[in-house]
Amino acid sequence: MSRLLIVANRLPVSVRPVEGGVEVGRSLGGLATGLSRPHEQSGGLWIGWPGTEEELTPEQQSDLDRKLAELRLVAVPLTGDQVTRYYEGYSNGVLWPLFHYLLDQVPLQARDWDAYVEVNELFADAVAEQYRPGDLVWVHDYQLLLLPGLLRRRLPEARIGFFLHIPFPSEELFRTLPARKRLLEGMLGADLVGFHTPTYLRHFATALTDILGLTVDIDRVQLPGREVRLGVFPMGIDAAAFQGLAQDPAVEAEAAALRGDGSVRILVGVDRLDYTKGIPRRLLAYERMLETHPELREKVRLVQVAVPSRTGVGAYQDFRSLVDGLVGRINGVFGTPRWVPVHYIFRGLSAPDLVALYRAADVMLVTPLRDGMNLVAKEFVASRPDGDGVLVLSEFAGASWELPEALPVNPYDTDATAEIFFRALTMEPDERRARLGPLRQRVATFDVHSWVTSFLDQLERVSGPSVRVLSPTAGEGALREELTRALEQNDELLLLLDYDGTLVPFTATPELARPDAALVGLLRSLAARPDTEVHIVSGRSREALEQWVGSLPIWLHAEHGFWSRPPGQAEWTPAADIHGTWREPVLEILRDITARTPGTLIEVKAVAIAWHYRLADLETGARRANELRIHLNQLLSNQPVEILAGNRVLEIRPYGVHKGRIVPPMSAEREARTTILAIGDDRTDEDLFASLPPTAISARVGPGATRARFRLESTAAVRGVLQMVADTGVRADLA
User: pLDDT at position 608, please?
Assistant: First the structure.
């Protein structure tokens, strides 16, 4: 297992100065719990701010350094001013409200950007100092959006993952940030960028397209020289720990005491006192329920736990006053000498007390206005081994994507929310259990350890030495040297050549890409070379290839290998059955988007359809292509087709048909005496490169991430290499 460097704003400890030293206690948060296992097993480090805001004496600092080193924790020391400006000022004053769609909380001027950059630089210095070749670096959350990019410049070969624990907002909202480009470029320094839900990933992809003009291929972004993968990894909790605590006799006794005789039903809310959590609207909905269902008075109680948060920020102080006022109003209007409608707890609870409250609850209210995931919902589910209880869950919480059996609610609709509360309180036992059962199984299966494993496994795969797609350093000179040696040693030659962008430059329209006389002559010379087999594998139609090079004694493969035709034959053989039920709906969509996007056109082939946007405005074409991919993926989700992004073209084609299928089967004896040369220029050719035997020589034309071993700069360079091959054949013939 690779050593793991975890990088987060905070170290997973609490630090308290004492006389002559410090007390260091471990944190019990979800991230600390989930990452503790790989931190220990990999022998890695956790890098972050230790949380000490007051200045330490030399003795206390020495004691802290020693204790952190024993725990393999590395402190990034920050001054009080840096914490105030980077953390409270920019991270929580600007990014936090904007990413949670609460624009009214964003200050009129986005100050403290310089402090945010400065602290991200300090983190980059700390990581670079600790980094060893082969380490995995996993950066966490919105406080460190710039860090992956800073690390990429310092450590170009590092394997870097980034995970965002809060929502990624819609592109329209994100583009209001003055630093929008730098933040996106910072995140793209990672090899793998992870989100809680597909919606957040889609918003990020749209921002990359609309703001940076990049082409996003569903789960990956091609950058010059490398590839960034995008993934959805919903975070879980330590479900086994919560279930075990819920079955503790002391916790069960406390839950029974909270329930009493059962005459008063309990609704529970547990939140940080943060304006994103929807506590005021929850209180208003509870108040509305008491107004419209007076029969519930003295028979129901809301226990609201509000954990203090960011108490030094003015907006949070005002928010606390608002919540206090609403609680006081409800208790004042509806309370009686023997009944308090809202039991309000303004402090954090210990784990046993919290789980006891979960076990005692009849209804759990998780109603944030916006939340990246919200693990409280999963904690409640895991804490109910009795299989009873109702979860009311905001549709704006990331967890709603994973927990559809919960009662969904729109917290902005007070009247409807009140009725959902009432429905939850009056739900029949059979329905309660039928809803909670699947939730419990899912939460237990996809726990925090599963989340960590899935992310790190993906990071290992996308950035491992055998898969990673960095720019090859070997250019045309190295290619010519290896090819010359191979041709001297081997009797036979197999050429596998792409057409557009490889043998001919890209043209404004497909019809203009017909071969010139020099290319036809070159291909004829290669085909006449002794013991040489030439294959052209193109995205073009059969008709185009037949018209342009059909008279040559070479293999032709049309539509990326779906159709094949041997030399000297007229019949084309399909690689699979032709299914066309999806074509007309797709063509209708393409006609509409083509009419609305100048510079685009449709190419209809026998089995595939291509949408070209090479002549469109760069930003508009990329945006339309991204919208089209999202739309078509939904439309064709149950069809045996796939959507392939090429060089400013989208192609919809039968699933599983790709250029790699045309590589002819070869015996070990033939492979040993054959030089294989494959050349291509875009994503479709990567399938060809991946299907070649290890001894093959492969070359990518132009920039972009690739599996090829060599890189050629242009079609002119390709023709130069092929002319060398043809000349070698002539000299061998003369000899």
Answer: 83
Rounded Cα gap, residues 705 and 90, in angstroms: 34
Residue with tokens 């009247």: 415
Superfamily of domain 239-445: Glycogen Phosphorylase B; (3.40.50.2000)
Q: Given this model, what pLDDT does residue 311 score?
A: 61
Quick one: tokens of 214? 């990049």
- The answer to whether residue 447 is catalytic is no
Residue by residue, DSSP assigns 642-701 as EEEE-SSEEEEEETT--GGGGSPP--HHHHHTEEEEEEE-SHHHHHHHHTS-TT-EEEEE
- Amino acid letter, 395: E
Residue keyed to tokens 């330490």: 56
Sequence ranges of the chain with CATH classification 3.40.50.2000: 4-232, 239-445
Q: How many CB atoms within 10 Å of residue 45?
A: 22
Amino acid at 386: D
Q: Please give the model's pTM, rounded to 2 decimal places.
A: 0.71
Rounded distance, CA 614 to CA 506, Å? 9
Ranges of beta strands (E only) in 498-614 are 532-537, 555-558, 563-565, 573-574, 601-604, 609-612
Q: How remote is the C-alpha of 488 from its chain's centroid?
A: 47
Residue ranges of the chain with per-residue pLDDT less than 50: 464-472, 734-735
Q: How far is CA 272 from CA 264, 303, 705, in A?
A: 25, 14, 43
CATH number of 583-654: 3.30.70.1020
Residue 141 DSSP label:
S
Which pLDDT score is estimated for 577?
66
CB atoms near residue 726 (< 10 Å): 19
Q: What is the per-residue pLDDT for 265? A: 97
Tell me whether residue 528 is exposed, middle or buried, using C-beta atoms within 10 angstroms of its C-beta: 0 to 12, 13 to 18, 19 or more. Answer: middle
Note the residue count of the chain.
735
Three-class secondary structure of residue 574 per DSSP: strand
pLDDT at 616: 82
Tokens 């209809």 belong to which residue?
604
**3-class DSSP assignment, residue 471:** coil
Intervals of CATH 3.40.50.1000 along the chain: 476-575+658-734
Active-site residue, selected from the candidate residues 63, 498, 500, 687: 498
Return the closest-CA partner of residue 443 out of 377, 518, 521, 366: 377
Within 10 Å of residue 556's Cβ, how many Cβ atoms? Answer: 25
Question: CATH number of the domain at 4-232, please?
Answer: 3.40.50.2000
The Cα–Cα gap between 657 and 573 comes to 13
The structural architecture, per CATH, of the domain 476-575+658-734 is 3-Layer(aba) Sandwich (3.40)
